[in-house]
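BUG: 3D viewer hangs when loading the predicted structure for this chain

Environment: internal workstation, default settings.
Expected: structure renders.
Actual: progress bar stalls at 90%.

Input used:
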Amino acid sequence: MGKLYVVGIGPGDYESMTIRAGKALERSDLIVGYHVYVDLVKRWYPEKTFLTTPMTREAERCRMALEEAEQGKQVALVCSGDSGIYGMAALVYELRGEKPEPEVEIVPGLTAACSGASLLGAPLTHDFAVISLSDRLTPWETIETRLESAAAADLSIVLYNPASHGRPDHLRRACGILRRVLPGDRLCAVARNIGREGQSREICTLAELENKAVDMFCTVFIGNAMTREIRGNLITPRGYRDV
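Structure tokens produced before the viewer hung:
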């Protein structure tokens, strides 16, 4: 009987992939995914068969994985970060519908909010919100409302998909929305290529962030009112020292 593992592979480096994810990939006959994510795991599993699709072909990718599992194969559908956070887990369940087969197992992974936070210090020790700036599937008006609400609640904020070739000004627009509520000197940071070649980090203010050059391989962090910089690290205290 076939089975589909929907696997979060983390940021991309083998050391950040969970043992459970590694075992799922080892058990699989076939690994399916967006070509960038497949390339991240290919060197560790060279004996496997790989199928890829370009960006924006998520439904096709999931159908392909389900069809292969229906034929009796053990299949892994890989997702960057966590399989259920902006990943393919929900779409797989939607496309399978009420059918009992193939069996589906969701394998969690380390999302960019966590891996990026560890690169920067400890900016998410207290409550935080994660918001994607991609308006391909979510109307910009909805994204704007979520940004305003998170800022008004004084949450630390993590921004996924801050810019791309088709929407190069989304981070600038988001900063403008946040500055309706937040001061320009609010501490922020950009984590680039987390766990991959070219990994870097940069701490800045919200005013400076507005003009930063970012892409899809960047994750952006906006601190809350308590966030501060300590020896080059971005720290958001929870208040343990005050107890």
